Amino acid sequence: MSLQQKLVVYVSGNRFTYFKFRFDEELADEEARVEPLERAELLYQLGDLLAHQPAIPVDEAERHFREAIRLAPEHAQAHAAMGRLYATDGRFAAAATYFDRAIELDPKNARVHSLYGWSILGEVFDGGTRSASETPQPMIDARELFRTAVRLDPSDSDAWAGLGKTFVFEKGDVTEGIQALNRAAQALPSRVDLLYDLMLLYIHSEQEQSALSLFDGLIRHRGDPELVRMAEDMLLNLELERAVDLFNAGQVEQARKLLLDAAERANDPRMKRTLMAQLASIDGTHQSNQAIDRFNQAVDAANEGRTDEAIALLEQVAREASDPELKKAATANIETLRATQLNSRVVAEYNRAVAELKAGNTDRAIEALEAALELGPEPELRDKIRKALDELKSSGS
To answer: For the residues 27-47, what does the mean pLDDT come to?
Structure first.
């Protein structure tokens, strides 16, 4: 997009961001002075100008720096500038060589330490690292470089920003990172990416309200769409984790409500699908756990002789359980309990027949045996009852 196009977009908007700067001293209207430069310094300055162009002419800038170093081998800033150029070009190993030499030549130059730290961070993130179980060693090395930079020059806001960024993977205390990013963000109000990193550290330190306030108060209104989406996803992922924790703690309804509310707020369809998938997973797991609980309750009821209650519970498991094996086990146990229940009723009728016969009530004994047969006992018991019934009828005739 050309400058003209950017201007048209800006003036067509309905919100205009501006920043106020306060100077401690009144600005003096001094006359400009022109001073001659050594050739090495001139080449360094020209190379640095080239290295800060939107589309860096790397070869041309490199030639300027290389010639400056040839003419002045102890020019620390030229070594550092070459390191920065190589880091920007993705040649991190070569960059490290030049930064090491620059620090050796000028160990008290805060800018050199800061640039070296940013080069290391660039290599970490250029390698695809976006998350880690612990802070990578190169980031710890960069942290020490930034600490040195802010100690040498406490006004170096870029170094404070780098120092804060080295804590984005930290799992322990991130207080130092939060303080560094707050300081950098105040000095660099246009750097919304610093607010994103700060929000991440608030989340790491379980300061959820601070993270939400930062997002709603600043990032949502000042960030570009992609940064806002990333920040929103981060907060929604936080709520996703909280929902899982609530579910694991047995607070199922609270977990479901949290996920439903988060899904309603999500603007990104992908994130909305993720939240709804987690909700479905929670519902499925909850139903599965309920089915298992009912199955265990049925086992207890059967062991205590409450057969009807056990069968009712198992029938509910067979209807509602999503696990095929659990359904199969419930069905098998229902059949077993019903068979046991039937045999118990058959045996009870048979025993009633014996008692009636002993009391001399042959007709009632025959009635009990016929009732036992009508229940449909298993073949072996059925044959035994039929034989007894035939004998009674024969003796009575």
So the answer is: 87
